[in-house]
Design brief:
The complex is a heterotrimer of chains A (about 130), B (about 450) and C (about 500). With about 130 residues, chain A is α+β, with helices and mostly antiparallel strands. Chain A is built from 4 helices and 9 strands. Chain B folds into 3 domains: about 30 residues, no CATH class; about 120 residues, Aspartate Aminotransferase, domain 1 (Alpha-Beta Complex), CATH 3.90.1150; about 260 residues, Type I PLP-dependent aspartate aminotransferase-like (Major domain) (Aspartate Aminotransferase, domain 2), CATH 3.40.640. Chain B is built from 13 helices and 14 strands. Chain B has a 7-stranded mixed sheet, sandwiched between helices. In chain B, helix 3 packs antiparallel against helix 11, helix 5 packs parallel to helix 11 and helix 6 packs across helix 7. Chain B is globular. Helix content of chain C is about 35%, strand content about 10%. Chain C has a 7-stranded mixed sheet with strand order 1-7-6-5-4-2-3, sandwiched between helices. Classes of the chains: A alpha+beta (about 130), B alpha/beta (about 450), C alpha/beta (about 500).
């Protein structure tokens, strides 16, 4: 399945969509499929500084808890409040309404991330179908 | 062949089916270097022979039921409704596995849900788990949860009057869990010294642990302690060792405590030389995902029928593994069922009546002690108590030995708890102690103490 | 086809049975004067009646819990082929003996001279477990396997720290039970996962590499492993560990496979927990209580929890004279009631019956393996001991997963095998019949599984919609987790 081309991807299955100095972050279709039905999401507080490749939250399904890694460094400016009552948005619309957080980032923060084709290739390598 | 195993013909047929000539073939992968010979144990015994051996063990003990018994100090003698033990002897309950397959485990799951409800009612908390091993480990779990909730803080203020058995287990975890334990001693009334508590609190404290009624039998000022902990930004933990006290005493849940935990043995669980008893753990909704232990939750099946399942399992070891909220797996499920049954039988009125009877019996003994001119021996005359109090004595072991000769097990000697505690006997009285037994104890103390 | 039957379709909560004025118990008449707590206690510390506790009669209670019990499957009813759980028969004699007043009524703080029988019993159990394991001493304190793991790892930690050694790494195979890593973290260690070989056993080369890297405190391993395969290189592994000053922790969950055949002591185990509620038949109780005694090697004896039962001639004492002990891991001395049951079992079986236990367990597992080969894919084709792991690969073509097979098995009147564990096998079905089962029960299980394999191929939708004959059908676990309702509340319907 082709990933949306308007964003970048991390090998830990997060996506980053940059608009100016704001990065919106979520998890990919593959990630939500692996997790199963999401029951609970734990997000970092507004104002928190997150460092790339470190844990910034968790997503819980019935059978697993997955860590969400920050694909870029930045400061949290917003968390998706909808997920409180509707964690299933992550399953239903992982690239849209299932977004997790918004960060204020510096220029060049997305250096080293994969583009859509790169992420697809990565998935194929990993043996995902 | 053995009566608990399959027979020789079963074996013969199975070996033939798998194409093996003997069972020994099936152990071929076990290297000779690790093999053992015949086990150094007696041969198989019949039921009769095993009974004889165990009756000998049983009769070599001084069973409290044969005495006027006033033993307490964390393990209490209360009524044991006949129906409770009868029900847990149903094979469907006691030989059932953990309810991982809910469709064939609704009996166990609904019973857990009811138990969780009972614990919430007793503690006035939002959520309770399916049980812990015992009071001591429940307190440890509360402290570890506080540490997780307040990651920058590692110190724990512990009341000096916390049961020494509970404290000993906390001590074991201190270094591995990276905790620092600070003791807040008791004052002249047997309650936590408020100034010492205030001095001990600080921004590095993650939890304050207080037992009430405490090991000295004294009831603590929970509202004040809860306030102090809150003001310091620490979690407050109310530990309970004598659970029937919850029939008349307000629990920490009423005063904003973060955790009410401890031991439910007092509700009719056999003392059984220390176990199995029943740890319980109750906390606030906000801490739900950091809570240790199993949880049964309500849901519906595909036909919309109400049913129960183990839930929020992602906190637990089998999923979270290294990041679990606890390593607990098997807990004390059957004891939780037993206690739910006892609480159901006692009910609203019985739980209160039981507590009032225990309180009244202890007050009777206490006033008898005062009336015998031994008032000065009451360690904490100003400290309010429930069903247990400390009688000071220079040689408590000797006193108890003499009392035993008169058919009285007068209580627990504090020499067991070390020099930190005033020398004396902890006397616990419950609804099981008749007036005659109480009079005998009072009379004996008057003569001997 | 049998399902799990219930005589009633619905059973309300005990709170929903409540009716004002009903009483379930009568307390003895109060012979001493009544006393009002308000006389001695400040009002704010008191509470009134707990308004929401139920008011039900003894009849209501007995009926309620009896009905609930009928919704449960149990060992008394039939086979539980749960891998690594060892769901064997729970002898009734043990229940009788644990309830003897001279044992059940004992208070743990009675002086030693009043409890000589209890101490003798505990001492005898320790001796029996020493005979079974070939190790040096055994603590009876832990309340469960995981608890025993913690005690064992704390002892190892202390042994290291005492000699000034600060190593932090604990190696754990990817096939391990979840309690192993959870425990290691609780004991203050860092976990390093070590991959298994293609045969599912310990990778010695990987072990050597890790040891060469230094900082390894211990290896935690289950023998036989969680695939039911005996670790052929266990003695070599322990020698390598000991050479580097590291320890071997052995998870005894699978002890049933080799009691009387092999000694963990000879495998080089430094600490081994024993699940009395597995190998030694104490009942599972729907989730405990169990008991997890830990046997140790000479090296760890100084660190054992206190107190230990010591024998002086014909007297027994509880001794806390152990200056290097890790301390206590729970209140008092152990789940004594379960220790009674375990010793009674050991006496009932005797030396030959205990070996017979392992023989029967391994034979039964291999018989089931033979019966299911071909219908299901074997996860590893090495020789099986007391348990065998299949997976759902052959059923994938029609979209059937292990959970569907499990749910359909409920309709055939059996509890499913352990699922989705070990983690290294995708879609696992771990089967451990135990030695309690005769050939008829095993044949019935094999027949049911074969039938389900056929249904999976020919009528997969039937399997996917199972179970049909249980009191409830598949429950919505997502809903339970998203909207947790963890207690009853008055008025919430």
């Amino acid at each position: 399945m082709a990933q949306p081309g308007d964003r970048m991807y991390a090998r830990t299955h997060e996506w980053v969509k940059v608009e100016g100095e704001t990065a919106t972050i979520g998890i990919t279709q593959y990630a939500q499929e692996q997790l199963g039905d999401v029951v609970f999401v734990e997000l970092p507080a507004v104002g928190r500084q997150v460092a790339r490749d470190t844990t910034m939250g968790t997503i819980e399904s019935v059978k697993a808890v997955s860590e969400v890694f920050a694909p870029v460094s930045g400061t949290v400016t917003a968390g998706n409040a909808e997920l409180d009552g509707h964690p299933e948005l992550i399953n239903q619309d992982p690239y849209g309404n299932g977004w997790l957080v918004r960060l204020h980032i510096a220029a060049g923060a997305t250096e080293g991330l994969l583009d859509a084709a790169g992420y697809d290739a990565f998935l194929a390598e990993e043996g995902a179908h | 062949m053995h009566r608990y195993q399959a027979g020789s013909e079963d074996r013969r047929r199975m070996l033939a089916a798998i194409g093996a000539t003997s069972v020994e073939q099936l152990f071929e992968t076990i290297p000779s270097g690790v093999r053992c010979g015949a086990l150094d144990l007696p041969s198989a015994q019949s039921e009769e022979e095993v009974r004889r051996e165990f009756w000998a063990y049983a009769t070599a003990n001084a069973a409290p039921e044969c005495f006027a018994s006033f033993l307490g100090a964390g393990v209490y003698r209360h009524v044991m409704p006949a129906a409770a033990d009868a029900l847990i002897q149903r094979g469907e309950f006691f030989t059932a596995y953990t309810p991982y397959q809910p469709e064939v485990s609704q009996g166990t799951l609904q019973a857990i849900f009811e138990f969780q409800t009972f614990v919430c009612q007793l503690t006035e908390m939002d959520v309770a788990n399916a049980s812990m091993y015992d009071g001591a480990t429940a307190v440890v779990e509360a402290v570890l949860m506080a540490r997780r909730l307040l990651p920058g803080r590692s110190r724990v203020v512990v009341a000096g009057s916390l049961h020494p058995e509970y404290r000993a287990v906390l001590d074991t975890y201190e270094e591995p869990a990276g905790l620092g334990l600070t003791e807040a001693p008791w004052g002249s009334d047997g309650r936590i010294d408020r100034q010492a508590l205030a001095a001990a609190l600080g921004p590095d404290v993650c939890a304050v642990v207080v037992q009430s009624p405490n090991v000295l039998g004294v009831i603590e000022d929970l509202p004040a302690i809860g306030e102090a902990a809150k003001a310091a930004g620490a979690q407050s933990v109310h530990a309970v060792a004598e659970a029937t006290s919850l029939g008349v005493l307000a629990p920490g849940g009423r005063f904003g405590f973060d955790v009410v935990c401890g031991e439910l043995q007092a509700f009719g669980i056999p003392p059984a030389f220390g176990g199995p008893h029943l740890g319980f753990f109750a906390t606030r909704q906000a801490h739900l995902r950091q809570m240790p232990g199993r949880l049964a939750g309500e849901t519906v099946d595909s036909e919309g029928r109400r049913g129960y399942v183990l839930t929020l399992s992602t906190r637990e070891q089998h999923i979270r593994r290294g990041k679990a909220t606890s390593n607990i797996c098997t807990n004390h499920g059957l004891m939780a069922l037993y206690t739910s049954i006892v609480l159901s039988l006692l009910g609203k009125k019985g739980v209160r009546e039981l507590a009032l009877a225990s309180y009244a019996t202890a007050e009777y003994v206490k006033s008898g002690v005062r009336g015998s001119g031994l008032g000065a021996r009451l360690a904490f005359p100003d400290g309010p108590t429930y069903n247990e109090f400390l009688v000071l004595h220079d040689d408590p072991d000797g006193l108890l030995e003499t009392l035993k000769k008169e058919g009285i097990l007068g209580g627990v000697s504090t020499t067991r708890f070390g020099a930190r505690f005033p020398s004396g006997v902890l006397v616990a009285a419950t609804e099981k102690n008749t007036r005659q037994e109480c009079d005998r104890l009072i009379d004996a103390l008057r003569r001997l103490a | 086809m049998n399902g799990t039957k219930a005589l009633r379709a619905r059973e309300r909560l005990i709170f929903e049975h409540s009716s004002a004025g009903r009483v379930g118990y009568q307390l003895p008449h109060l012979e001493v004067p009544a006393a009002d707590p308000a006389a001695t206690l400040p009002a704010e510390l008191l509470r009134g009646e707990l308004a929401d506790l139920p008011e039900v009669s003894e009849v209501d209670v007995v009926r309620h819990y009896t009905r609930l019990s009928k919704w449960n499957y149990s060992v008394d009813e039939g086979l539980y082929p749960l891998g690594s759980c060892t769901m064997k028969y729970n002898p009734r004699l043990n229940e009788e003996l644990a309830r003897l007043p001279g044992l059940a009524q004992l208070h743990p703080l009675q002086p030693d001279d009043q409890v000589q029988g209890a101490l003798a019993l505990m001492w005898q159990l320790e001796q029996a477990l020493i005979a079974v394991t070939g190790m040096t001493r055994v603590t009876l304190q832990p309340a469960a396997g995981a608890h025993g793991e913690l005690a064992g790892m704390l002892m190892i930690r202390k042994a290291l720290r005492q000699r000034g050694d600060n190593r932090r790494k604990v190696l754990i195979p990817d096939s391990a039970h979840g309690t192993n890593p959870a425990t290691a973290v609780f004991a203050g260690f860092d976990i390093v996962e070590i991959a298994s070989t293609a045969q599912g056993t310990l990778d010695l080369a990987a072990l050597r590499r890790q040891l060469d890297g230094g900082d390894v405190a211990a290896l935690m391993i289950t023998v036989p492993n969680t695939l039911g395969v005996f670790e052929p290189d266990i003695a070599t592994a322990s020698a390598l560990l000991h050479e580097k000053g590291a320890f071997l922790y052995m998870d005894g969950a699978n002890l049933n496979a080799f009691v009387g055949v092999a000694h963990p002591g000879k495998m080089g185990a430094d600490a081994l927990h024993i699940n009395l509620h597995k190998t030694f038949s104490t009942p599972h109780g729907g989730g405990g209580p169990g008991a997890g005694p830990v046997a140790v090697s000479e090296a760890l004896v100084p660190y054992l929890p206190v107190p230990m039962v010591e024998r002086h001639g014909d007297r027994f004492v509880l001794s806390s004279d152990r200056p290097d002990s890790i301390g206590k891991v729970r209140g008092f001395y152990g789940n004594f009631g379960m220790l009674v049951r375990a010793l009674a079992y050991i006496r009932s079986l005797g030396r030959d019956g205990l070996r017979g236990m392992a023989e029967g367990a391994v034979l039964n597992a291999n018989y089931v393996r033979k019966g299911l080969e071909g219908s299901f894919k074997l996860a590893y084709d090495g020789p099986s001991m007391h348990e065998v792991v299949f997976d759902d690969t052959l059923q994938a073509a029609t979209g059937i997963k292990n959970i569907d097979i499990a749910k359909r098995l409920l309709d055939y009147g059996f509890h499913p095998p352990t699922m989705s564990f070990p983690l290294i096998v995708h879609g696992a079905l771990m089967i451990e019949p135990t030695e309690s089962e005769g050939i008829e029960e095993l044949d019935a299980f094999i027949a049911a599984m074969r039938e389900i394999a056929r249904e999976a191929k020919e009528t997969p939708d039937l399997v996917k919609g199972a179970p049909y004959t249980t009191p409830v059908s598949r429950l919505d676990e997502v809903r339970a987790a998203r909207q947790p309702i963890l207690r009853w509340r008055r008025g919430a319907e």
